[in-house]
Write a structure and sequence with these properties.
alpha/beta; Aldehyde Dehydrogenase, Chain A, domain 1; Aldehyde Dehydrogenase, Chain A, domain 2; 2 domains; 21 strands; 35% helix; binds NADP nicotinamide-adenine-dinucleotide phosphate
Length: 513
Amino acid sequence: MLESHVLGHWRGFEGEGRPLPDATTGAEVARIPLSGPDFGEVLGYARQVGGPALRALGFHQRAAILKDLGKFLRGHLDEFHALSTRTGATKRDSTVDVDGGIGVLFVYGGKGARELPERGLLADGGPEQVGKNGTFAVQHVYTPLTGAAVEINAFNFPVWGMLEKFAPAFLAGVPSVVKPASQTAYLTELVVRRIVESGLLPEGALQLVCAPPGDLADHLTGQDLLSVTGSAATAAALRAHPVVAGNAVRFTAEADSLNCSVLGPDARPGTPEFDLYVGQLVTEMTVKAGQKCTAIRRALVPRAVIEDVIGAVTAKLAEIHVGDPADDSVHMGPLASLSQRDEVRRALKTLTGEAQLVHGNPDAFGLSGANAENGGFLPPLLLRADPDARAPHAVEAFGPVSTVLPYDGPAHAVELAARGAGSLAGSVVSHDAAFVSAVGGGLAPWHGRLLLLNRDNAGESTGHGSPLPHTVHGGPGRAGGGEELGGIRAVLHHMQRTALQGSPEVLRAVVSP
Ligand code: NAP
């Protein structure tokens, strides 16, 4: 039975709990309780114990702790990877989640040391004189909110999802209350066990709730934050929660997203950009079995090369071995559960009402070392559709599924991208600066992050699907309208910006006591 780390202790809850099956075999990995702690007490502990302990430290001390924690967790990679396999993750998938999550701690540790003052109030720019005589000025400052950061995560990134939210909150001086998705909460629980054992964090800086959310949102105040990663429905329900809305709880959501990748007309078959585009699409369809909020769902290609693209992508997809994620020869493991697989099948059914399946058969495919009855397996599934079809721009199949759509000219590509109604990540693959500039500028308002990929930057590129601690992670509209990461901006999100007005010398004394 999974436990929660609340009020300074590990705590279990009574009852049989709900079994959490291994994604590959269906065997029970753990159970999650059906009831949880008193959320009023959990949030009270964060506010009364965690917040003061964190705020007693300066930015540089908190940054150093993040780095030390990263080093400590690196010593447990084997154990984390072994358990991660049970979520359906291959070695490559686990690296994205586990190593990527630990990497966020190092980046925020480094940024905190370099970009923030050692301690004291965080000044936003310098004082600005308002009166004519110079006796009255304005100075904006940031101070940490005195509440808790409640962090609700999706099942697909049990480690990265927690750490990418925790690191900026910690650096700001705000305690975290983490609620992982039930499906894969056992991996989050293991990582938090090691974090607690490290003894590095101040008391109350991180609490973990492995239980249903219950009345958690009812206890939030205007000094708390709520960040949600998950489906659009969950994000919408929490955004409209009467306490969240009524108390103006600082809210951010990362929801689903129909990300696109645009191939430039210059990138004909035989060019490096054509190969980059094809390789990237295959990667995005197969890493984490396509269960990535940033995965490419819509491949927008010039009408003249659609057959070439489909031919090249299907040739590569034919080489993908699906099966037991513990087997090193397997490229793609199962989805996180049978119910996730069924959900993808349902979405696929809607998509195939308007699109044609050009690669993969969900009912007949090869499997290495696994049984399709027990695990959430699907093959990579490539579709092709008319650009005016509605479903590819509206339905997210959260699995190894992507649709190729033809476009006619840069303005059309931008218009089609915008039909996704707001995305986390997009990419333009082209070596034609004029095309990239026209399409990139048109796509930007619809995206939180845009990769402009070509032969010159491909060697160092981190790829379409990988948000970095340095980049915004979030997007407008359908993507949830939130923003995470993006460097120090995510730290500032946990702080109040206040305009101090007074004599310049008083303002200086307040900022640097
Ligand atoms: P979900 O069902 O919305 O669940 C997400 C999280 O919200 C889980 O921890 C869930 O807890 C919790 N939750 C559900 N109802 C809640 C409520 N009323 N109050 C508080 N918490 C609640 O989504 P999912 O199926 O896990 O994730 C898949 C979706 O997430 C996909 O659509 C994908 O696009 C999206 N996603 C987005 C991002 C991103 O960064 N934008 C990243 C990953 C995934 P339980 O698990 O205990 O129900």
